[in-house]
């Protein structure tokens, strides 16, 4: 491909001296007009001497005599010449002579554009991949690829606006780059228009003048001036493009934003973690060559990103998926999957201890092998990881890029030195655990959900900071697996976002498990001693301290928005512990081409909600959907024992919002299967709108509450009332039968004393 500038690789253009030398080497703006003027004068003299006016007039009369076939034959010949890489300038001039200014411009402009498009497609389809394989690792070729991908329109315009470049070669040259096809066609048409007008109108005027024996010097001067202005404008645009290239080079040199991060090391380095890495971060993986343009580019391969990628690719979209760490995100690697494996092991340990209550006497000496518990966790995580593997998504047709993503513009993303262009994009970078600003904590060392599952030895004394879902789940699990756990929480009760009655039952169970609870407590600092780590705190106005072996922080999460260069994409966000990427009710950011889903933008951080949000984004981003996030019915569950599951409004929320409601509550001690299972602590509580059976919300506290809440969520989504649930037949005996029984309670509440009297009379009449 011809270059618009000369370039000496020995000159450092970023230095003042190098810049001066570079500019001095560029062709001056007056040289091309002077050259063109000389050529025109020479042609006019030759035409006058040889009497070309009469000959061209005879040729024009012959073409016109052909009628409609004349322009058609000329058009086809012009297209064929462009595809065959034959210079078209002579044909353009001939078009002006044969068909005049108006029809000459119409015919030559569109014939040249069509020929250029066909040549571009031939080059792109037959030679692009071979050139990439040959020169893909060449630094200059990579730079050319990046520039044409990011600034293709500018580069096409620069070459097309100066009617001296060999267009016949440019058509094929641009086909080897990343310039999108329709960008090339549009800007070829627009930017060939001035040159075509110059050639055609000039040729027509010169022909008319020569035919009359006159030289149109005024028109020649005007054309030369116009060409000089165009040349100056092109020179300025070329300098601006050069400045952008230098800025990109400086950014690459100054920071590691585009570099691919090292492969994360998972501890311990055993066969299970190696199997996990082989699925979600293969050591031998090489990023593919980017497509010219993607329907959807997804940043982040956690739950939201993976669902977006699989769903979009399955519908036929061209999709790119970018991940800087491990595919699967928090859910697979540091969240749902490993935590539930740990919780299941802790429940098994608790069942052994409680076996005597069922008449099953366990012989003494039964112990928890913590190292084996954690090995099982890693093994199961590695097995499940195949669902989130790089290979699986490659097989689905998704282009998987491993590396740190960074926006370069409103429709471009860079990863590992490659630029990806998109029609739409999704930010799904998730969140991370927050480190409390606690003096001495970092120096003493602490665990988070991202490091706790790497343990191979059980901490004898564990302090958990935070009584939210993560803190409560892991605190109970470690207590049951043999650690002495102390849970420190700044509020007066655990799980302060849940129904108070539900939280009280969990708190009661924690105490029965032997856990120590420090509520209404404020941590002050941490010091390290020879015996462990001392956590200083304040409770009830008194200072106190406790010594532990490890500290597990479960005190909130922050969205991952840093390093994405969201400003370049025009995406508004809040960093730190703020809202993250700001989205509207359709999950669209301030850049209408970019959406967000998952923990990076949502008020609730649940895997199943990230899944639902991703499905909403697919509809809205790819298919002009108008789906609203606020219309979703969102259940959730905290996997303590008993579990606390919830959907819709709780009683406290209904009171705050001034919503009139009625509550129907069924305790497990009145449910046959719960009595048989020895699980009578808990309840089903369903709220309905006062005077109706419309379900406003529900809370279930039970060992398997997460398995039961979906029945209520389904009813709410389908618009079924609580009375309808009374008609759903449940197998007997099951604990889920309590949901039907709450429906019976609602139906009985409709039987007022007056109605009962009339029914009694009616039935007496029927006897």
Task: Please write out the topology.
Layout: H1 16-24, H2 31-50, H3 52-65, H4 69-83, H5 89-126, H6 128-135, H7 139-161, H8 167-175, H9 181-211, H10 217-254, H11 271-280, E1 294-299, H12 303-314, E2 319-323, H13 329-333, H14 336-354, H15 370-384, H16 390-395, E3 399-402, E4 405-409, E5 412-415, E6 418-427, E7 431-433, H17 441-444, E8 461-465, H18 469-480, E9 484-488, H19 500-512, E10 516-518, E11 521-529, E12 532-539, E13 542-548, E14 550-553, E15 557-559, H20 566-569, E16 573-574, E17 580-581, E18 594-596, H21 607-622, E19 635-638, E20 643-648, H22 651-657, E21 661-667, H23 672-677, E22 683-689, E23 695-702, H24 705-718, H25 722-725, H26 737-749, H27 753-766
Parallel strand pairs: 1-2, 1-6, 2-3, 6-18, 8-9, 8-14, 9-10
Antiparallel strand pairs: 4-5, 5-6, 7-15, 11-12, 12-13, 16-17, 19-20, 20-23, 21-22, 22-23
Helix pairs in contact: 2-10, 3-9, 4-5, 5-8, 5-9, 7-9, 7-10, 9-10, 11-15, 12-21, 14-15, 14-18
Note down, in words, how this protein is organized.
It is a single chain. With 767 residues, this protein is α/β, with parallel strands linked by helices. The chain folds into four domains: 52-249, no CATH class; 271-282 and 290-433 and 558-631, FAD/NAD(P)-binding domain; 442-555, FAD/NAD(P)-binding domain; 642-754, 2-Layer Sandwich (Enolase-like, domain 1). Strands 1, 2, 3, 4, 5, 6 and 18 form a seven-stranded mixed beta sheet that branches. The radius of gyration is 37 Å and the shape is elongated. The model is unreliable at 1-30 and 250-260 (pLDDT under 50).
